[in-house]
Amino acid sequence: MEPLSLDRRRILLGVTGGIAAYKTAELVRRLRVAGAEVQVVMTEAATRFITPLTLQALSGRPVRTELWDTAAEAAMGHIELARWAERILVAPASADFLAKLRAGRADDLLTTLCLAADAPTAVAPAMNRCMWEHPATRENVAALQVRGVQVWGPDRGSQACGETGPGRMLEAAELHRCVIEWLQPGPLSGVDLLITAGPTREAIDPVRFLSNRSSGKMGYAVARAAAEAGATVTLVSGPCALEPPSKVKLVRVESASEMYTAVMDRAVEQAIFIGAAAVADYAPAASRPEKIKKDARTMRLELVKTPDILAAVAALEKRPFTVGFAAETDHLKQHARAKLERKGLDMIAANQVGGGLGFEAEENRLWVLWPEGERHLPTTSKLELARQLLALIVERYEAKNSVQDSR
Ligand code: CTP
User: Fold this and answer.
1) Correct CATH for 10-183 of 3.40.50.1820, 3.40.50.1950, 3.90.320.10, 3.90.1720.10
2) Which of 46, 79, 263, 400 could bond to 15 as cystine, CB 3.0-4.6 Å?
């Protein structure tokens, strides 16, 4: 017998108030037939459109509706339920729910779960076409997408309110197909990927160091995108204030030489290496064991070059697919291509620094170059950009492997 496509996958299905809630019954049935475990959570408004009893019978689990239900909380507390969920799908998602999700509200069980859960989330909006087209909803949807929430639909067509236009929730069969696609193993599943991120700190004495403006945001976003694509990700990070993305193994380091050791200890086992860290190019020749006193009128700091981690990985005999970054103030493509060739990389992602873009900014844009080609990724959030960059890495990594396999 063919294995069920959603065998024991744990889906938390949120239902909010809207006439399309009747389609959810059929969706629950289909997900169950495909083998999924479905926990339905309804808002108070949803219960006015379809009864919890219907969805309970179809899902085979008591439907949760309230945050303050002591009996249900005793069986599985809401934080536990948030952790249980492998995926969250909210269908239908009303305009009000999208606004709350965007704002990070937690005033009922469903919004609380969405805020507490780490699981990837999708929404299937359903509303009157004017509500869907309202700038407030447009902004909410765009912000959620940037945050990584998938938005499925809506469809166009005749609506329960008598109007015609966009706002109809996708049909159950369509949503079922989206869920199956969503739960397929990612293109990098089973692939080991190592990434460096953040700045390094080069000690001058026990209290002072040399460092740079890197926030680590781009590297952490690439690590997250790689984990989303199914890779087994190790993130070697210099000091930064960011939370590591979920399912990513974090190795904290301080200096360029510590980063070098952490990377070289692991590099040969990796299929892909991405050097996104802003590694200090020079470090003090010797770090003083005691704090330097300000006695002298002038002082000289002797600096020595740090090991080039990226070039060292690229030079390994059995080396991973190697991707570097380049931050340039001028002649972006020219300098980046020279770096690609000099370090013998498979790919380089170049960004312009200065003019509000680069290190501490929320957005960025990239020129991505590889030996046979190049592509421009226009300005967007660092997470979205990281996802696009990762898709390109997957494309080139697969192309390189298929050439090697055919030899
Ligand atoms: N890199 C590294 N180890 C170093 C220095 C840089 O791994 N010691 C990596 C960075 O992670 C990044 C790329 O190399 O992927 C940047 O290359 P680099 O030549 O150092 O860039 P710039 O510092 O911009 O160089 P230059 O000053 O020559 O433009």
Assistant:
1) 3.40.50.1950
2) 46
